[in-house]
Amino acid sequence: MKQVHVAVGVIFQNDAFYLTKRADNVHQGGKWEFPGGKVETGETVAQALQRELQEEVAIDVLACQPLLIIEHDYGDKQVKLEVFIVDQFQGEPTAQEGQQEQWFSLEELSEIDLPAANTAIVEKLNQHFAS
Ligand SMILES: Nc1nc2c([nH]c(=O)n2[C@H]2C[C@H](O)[C@@H](COP(=O)(O)OP(=O)(O)OP(=O)(O)O)O2)c(=O)[nH]1
Ligand SMILES: [Mg+2]
């Protein structure tokens, strides 16, 4: 099965993380996600991140730091998530596609329904932001 390459942005501001809810009718529907999407042909992952965050939540990424790369097999789909922390951006993230949106604390990220691949992201964030 072909692997889908995805750019994912962990939007972080004032000790909180901005997530949107995936529509019910799509892959991993109804779960909270970090905004992002597929890297298109001819695009770098950084360009994909910039484009997807503009399309989905209308922010301009000013800087991003790589956090981790996750390869996960959902059975019906194989994904490679390249995850970046986005803590410098212009604009206020706002869901552009009618998605539910919410800012969560680090503690809350462990309690909400996320795609299985995201367990590794939350673990890494716990290490990264441990105080
Ligand atoms: N954006 C995002 N995708 C995730 C996360 N965790 C996770 O397993 N995924 C998976 C779900 C999807 O199979 C894939 C993302 O692809 P997508 O369907 O949202 O791609 P896209 O935004 O380009 O959407 P589209 O053009 O197909 O409508 O990655 C996450 O935290 N954020
Ligand atoms: Mg998407």
UniProtKB/TrEMBL annotation:
Mg(2+) binds at G36, E56. CDD domains: NUDIX_MutT_NudA_like. SUPFAM superfamilies: Nudix. 8-oxo-dGTP binds at R22, H27, E33, F34, P35, G36, N118. Residues 1-127 form the Nudix hydrolase domain. Keywords: DNA damage, DNA repair, DNA replication, Hydrolase, Magnesium, Metal-binding, Mutator protein. InterPro entries: Mutator_MutT (IPR003561), MutT-like (IPR047127), MutY_C (IPR029119), Nudix_hydrolase (IPR020476), NUDIX_hydrolase-like_dom_sf (IPR015797), NUDIX_hydrolase_dom (IPR000086). It catalyses: 8-oxo-GTP + H2O = 8-oxo-GMP + diphosphate + H(+); 8-oxo-dGTP + H2O = 8-oxo-dGMP + diphosphate + H(+). One of its GO terms (biological process) is DNA replication. One of its GO terms (molecular function) is 8-oxo-7,8-dihydroguanosine triphosphate pyrophosphatase activity. Its cofactor is Mg(2+). The keyword Nucleus does not apply. Its EC number is 3.6.1.55. It is an enzyme of class 3 (hydrolase). Belongs to the Nudix hydrolase family. This is 8-oxo-dGTP diphosphatase. The lineage of its organism: Bacteria, Pseudomonadati, Pseudomonadota, Gammaproteobacteria, Alteromonadales.
